[in-house]
Amino acid sequence: MTNPHFVVFANEKGGTGKSTTAVHTAVALAASGHRVGVLDLDHRQRTTTRYLENRAATMRRLDTALPQPAFEVIDDLSEEALARSLERLSPQADVIVVDTPGRDDPVARAAILKADTLVTPMNDSFVDLDLIGQVHPDNFKITKPSFYAELIWNSRTQRAKATGKSVDWVVLRNRLQHIQSHNLQRVGAALDELARRVGFRVIPGLGERVIYRELFPKGLTLLDLQQIGEVGLGHIAARQELREMIAALGIPGAEAREAA
Fold first, then answer.
1. Is 211 helix (H, G, I), strand (E, B) or coil?
2. Residue in 136, 115, 144 with CA at minimum distance from that of residue 6
3. Are 234 and 68 in contact (CB under 8 A)?
4. Dihedral through CA 19, CA 25, CA 29, CA 32, nearest 10?
5. Residue by residue, what is the 3-state secondary structure of 92-115?
6. Over the stretch 29-42, which tens digit does the pLDDT of each residue have?
């Protein structure tokens, strides 16, 4: 088995845009010259798988080629099934993107242990922040890391002992509002404080835009401009947002090329 770079999207809270971000990351990396494999561990919801199946159907319908990762979904949730899928995907990929379910289970933990880049998407709110850190109700300062931060800390320590490799933990602020607010500033300040204590990077993710949901039935992303058709200024801004997110993730490999 070759040694691809593993990008694992993990968050035990649902509704954070995890699957949407995982798919856009995988397609953007494929468009930039990477050989990408995608593994979907959420065999019930299958959002990532459905997105890429829709993309394949669009290519057939339009008789066109788009950057498309190889992808699998694990129906048998066992560590053995995870190992078998990785054995199939690894020879044809230099990056493997793993989308874990919004819950804690042994297979998700096993996938986290393989992460070179661990991405935790969160909505820009104290509700989502509570997953990784608790804040004081009056001054909004971090009082202590939460259970999930401890889980990731233990996983990173375990991986470092086993492989000698460090894990780049990235907290992705999704659904950022495009206007400043006291809440935005307070969440940002609390995240920065927690990042220093726990050891993760904070980067901006994808904003709250209807376009991301509208693209799902066709399996398209904002990089597929020719297939989308007319693109307004808002879509251009969202496309730049996506590019900046991919650059901030810092995935090693081929240099990014302008997508058609």
1. helix
2. 115
3. no
4. 130
5. HCCEEEEECCCCCCHHHHHHHHCC
6. 999 999 999 999 99
